[in-house]
């Protein structure tokens, strides 16, 4: 049987709890993502995609429900422990790349390893290896300001993979890119999924991109309203 | 490892915002430089005062007989007469009573200034009758022969200890050949003859300032006190003298005790006169504490600019953190703990303050040296004040960096990532 990497059970997320303007965004989400799966979460703006992504990425805690990430109960872990789990088990890819502008691509990729306490030599070697994987070895000494959008996203993907995470969590990774560059980034995800067997959770509002994934989960008004297989076999 | 990376990161940040970093540091630079410069000048003044006072003798107690404090100085006061003065017997009594605390009493009498001549050679001298206590206080450096001995004093012998300058003028600089020689010194048309028993090394601070220099310099010729009294026809009564306290004795309280002793025993019924004393030690500590107070007060004023500089650092750190909110969010998403974010920003504040402090120390040393030079003193910034300032700037960095760094550490990663 396949291993469950993400296991969300009856997840409810409310904001402004106890206040007059209390707001429930997610109303009891149940979701399982298996090891090596390429899943997409789609939904219109305001459907709760980002809130769900923040919970999956343990940047936030659910108000109710249970969440096991790679068999670790993350709902009851202290903040410090959550930092370590984020560092080791999750690789984030953001729409706006979020690279540290003052440092080189290489140092950006090294950053998660720095927080993991890995020595400089190993960090450097691993970062170079990842930049090579995303075809960015030629520009590793460049700062993000000197890179194009697609190149920045490649560096961000390399950074996300550097600590061998259990999942790659990509929030609208092609949202800020033109269609050609966006295509290349999607191709890179497919390559990583196929060749490295990485579990990828893609959050997108684009049904077109979602169709390329193995499973599509549709979110509407804070509830999962549908789940189906992707129709396009890509790459 | 994280600390080293944080330092490198902080340096890269400073390099990226050179002007802003410099302006932020300026407050710290000015503050530290002023504190160092002021401390340097203060220390130089203090050392100069202490060393010149120290030459006089910190264990000395000056005693003098004068008019009572409660007298009306507008009325005609009677002149002091022999019967009012302090006799040698009174001194002997005092020495007996305080033998545990007093080392010696320094007494001197001037026979007069004169000249010794032999052919073309001559030497200007000042003949001083000095007791053992006086010679002890002078700490003469005897280069040949001996100092005046107890038996010379008791018997009122006509022996003398002369300076090496005298020897240079009259004995071709051969101190050994001067020993045992008779010297004739003419004072006011009278000749005084002594046998040379010792030669001491002349020093301006001990012999006092001479109006003439070079060959014409006037040096002292020390003869026994008793001989001096006899030759100067002075009465054996005194109005002032110096008491040398023993090492370890509390000269300040001894000074008060002796004044009380004289006033109770000899001047209780005196309508006009009283004995007053002051210890050099008390004067010295009063003076140094006054200088230290002034130094600290001025340094504290300079310290205010340091405080303003520190607030500047805090302000710029808050600005920097606001600017880098997204970066903080990203770092948290990548696994940075609150502690590592706090450490990053405290390190940055400390690096700013330390670099500012270091530049401030260098400028402060230079300013202090220039100021000390122009004021005619000598001395440089003490290691203590430099260490203090460097440690202080580091502490400043931690203090003024802690609040902004804690704010950064407490940022919610979602809000930080969403920050535009």
Brief descriptors of the model:
heterodimer; A: 235 residues; alpha/beta; Rossmann fold; six-stranded mixed beta sheet; four-stranded antiparallel beta sheet; 10 strands; globular; B: 420 residues; alpha+beta; 2 domains; four-stranded mixed beta sheet; 15 helices; 13 strands; 57% helix; elongated; transmembrane helix (chain B); ABC3_permease_C (chain B)
Strand order of the largest sheet of chain A: 6-7-8-3-9-10
What is the domain tally of chain A? Answer: 1
Query: Biggest β-sheet of chain A: count, sense, barrel?
Result: 6 strands, mixed
The succession of helices and strands of chain B, N to C, reads HHEEHEEEHEHEHHEEHEHEEHEHHHHH
Strand fraction band of chain B?
15-25%
Give me the count of strands of chain A.
Answer: 10
Domain MacB-like periplasmic core (chain B): 21-260
Family (chain B): Belongs to the ABC-4 integral membrane protein family.
InterPro entries (chain B): ABC3_permease_C, MacB_PCD, Macrolide_Exporter_MacB
Main location (chain B): membrane
Describe the structure.
The complex is a heterodimer of chains A (235) and B (420). Chain A is of the alpha/beta class and 235 residues long. Chain A has a single domain (4-229), classed as P-loop containing nucleotide triphosphate hydrolases (Rossmann fold). Chain A has helices spanning 49-56, 79-89, 105-115, 120-133, 149-161, 179-196, 207-210, and strands at 4-15, 23-34, 38-43, 64-69, 72-73, 90-93, 167-171, 199-204, 215-220, 223-229. Chain A starts with a strand and ends in a 6-residue tail after the last strand. In chain B, strand 8 and strand 9 form a beta hairpin. Helix content of chain B is 57%, strand content 20%. Chain B is built from 15 helices and 13 strands. The longest helix of chain B has 44 residues, at 280-323. At the A-B interface, helix 2 and helix 3 of A face helix 1, helix 12, helix 13 and helix 15 of B.
């Amino acid at each position: 049987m396949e291993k469950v990497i993400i296991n969300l059970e009856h997840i409810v997320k409310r904001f402004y709890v106890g206040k007059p303007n209390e707001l429930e965004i997610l109303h009891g989400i149940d979701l399982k993502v298996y090891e090596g799966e390429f899943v997409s979460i789609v939904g219109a703006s305001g459907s709760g995609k980002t809130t769900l992504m923040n919970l999956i990425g343990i940047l936030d805690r659910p108000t109710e429900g249970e969440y096991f990430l790679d068999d670790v109960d993350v709902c009851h872990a202290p903040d410090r422990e959550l930092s370590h789990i984020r560092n080791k088990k999750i690789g984030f890819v953001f729409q706006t790349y979020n690279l540290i502008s003052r440092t080189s691509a290489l140092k950006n990729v090294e950053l998660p390893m720095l927080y993991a306490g890995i020595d400089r030599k190993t960090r450097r070697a691993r970062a170079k290896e990842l930049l090579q994987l995303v075809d960015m070895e030629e520009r590793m000494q460049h700062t993000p300001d000197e890179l194009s959008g697609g190149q920045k996203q490649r560096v961000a993907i390399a950074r996300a993979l550097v600590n061998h995470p259990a999942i790659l969590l990509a929030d609208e990774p092609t949202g800020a890119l033109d269609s050609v560059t966006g295509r290349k980034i999607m191709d890179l995800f497919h390559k990583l999924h196929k060749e490295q067997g990485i579990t990828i959770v893609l959050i997108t509002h684009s049904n077109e991109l979602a169709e390329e994934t193995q499973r599509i989960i549709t979110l509407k008004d804070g509830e999962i309203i549908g789940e189906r297989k992707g129709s396009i076999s890509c790459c | 490892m994280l600390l080293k990376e944080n330092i490198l990161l902080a340096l890269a940040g400073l390099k990226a915002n050179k002007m802003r970093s410099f302006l932020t540091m300026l407050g710290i630079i000015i503050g530290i430089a002023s504190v160092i410069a002021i401390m340097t000048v203060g220390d130089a003044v203090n050392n100069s005062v202490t060393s010149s006072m120290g030459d006089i003798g910190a264990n000395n107690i000056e005693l003098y007989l004068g008019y009572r404090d409660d007298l009306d100085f507008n009325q005609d006061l009677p002149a002091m007469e022999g019967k009012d003065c302090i006799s040698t017997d009174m001194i002997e009594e005092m020495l007996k009573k305080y033998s545990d605390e007093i080392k010696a009493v320094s007494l001197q009498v001037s026979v007069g200034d004169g000249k010794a001549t032999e052919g073309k050679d001559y030497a200007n001298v000042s003949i001083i009758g000095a007791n053992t206590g006086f010679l002890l206080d002078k700490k003469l450096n005897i280069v040949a022969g001996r100092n005046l001995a107890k038996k010379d004093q008791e018997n009122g012998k006509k022996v003398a200890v002369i300076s090496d300058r005298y020897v240079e003028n009259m004995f071709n600089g051969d101190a050994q050949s001067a020993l045992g020689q008779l010297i004739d010194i003419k004072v006011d048309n009278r000749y005084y003859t002594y046998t040379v028993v010792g030669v001491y090394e002349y020093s301006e601070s001990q012999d006092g300032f001479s109006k003439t220099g070079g060959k014409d310099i006037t040096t002292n010729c020390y003869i026994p006190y008793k001989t001096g009294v006899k030759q100067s026809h002075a009465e054996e009564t005194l109005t002032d003298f110096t008491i040398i306290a023993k090492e370890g004795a509390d000269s300040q309280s001894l000074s008060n005790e002796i004044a009380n002793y004289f006033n109770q025993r000899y001047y209780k019924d005196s309508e006009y006169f009283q004995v007053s004393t002051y210890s050099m030690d008390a004067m010295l500590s009063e003076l140094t504490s006054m200088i230290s107070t002034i130094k600290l007060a001025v340094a504290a004023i300079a310290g205010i600019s340091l405080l303003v500089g520190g607030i500047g650092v805090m302000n710029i750190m808050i600005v920097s953190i606001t600017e880098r909110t997204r970066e903080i969010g990203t770092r948290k998403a990548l696994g940075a703990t609150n502690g590592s974010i706090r450490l990053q920003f405290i390190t940055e504040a400390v690096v700013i303050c330390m670099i500012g402090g270091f530049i401030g120390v260098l400028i402060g040393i230079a300013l202090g040296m220039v100021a000390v030079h122009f004021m005619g003193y000598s001395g440089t910034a003490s290691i203590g004040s430099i260490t203090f300032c460097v440690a202080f700037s580091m502490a400043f960095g931690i203090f003024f960096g802690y609040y902004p760094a804690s704010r950064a550490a407490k940022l919610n990663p979602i809000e930080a990532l969403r920050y535009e």
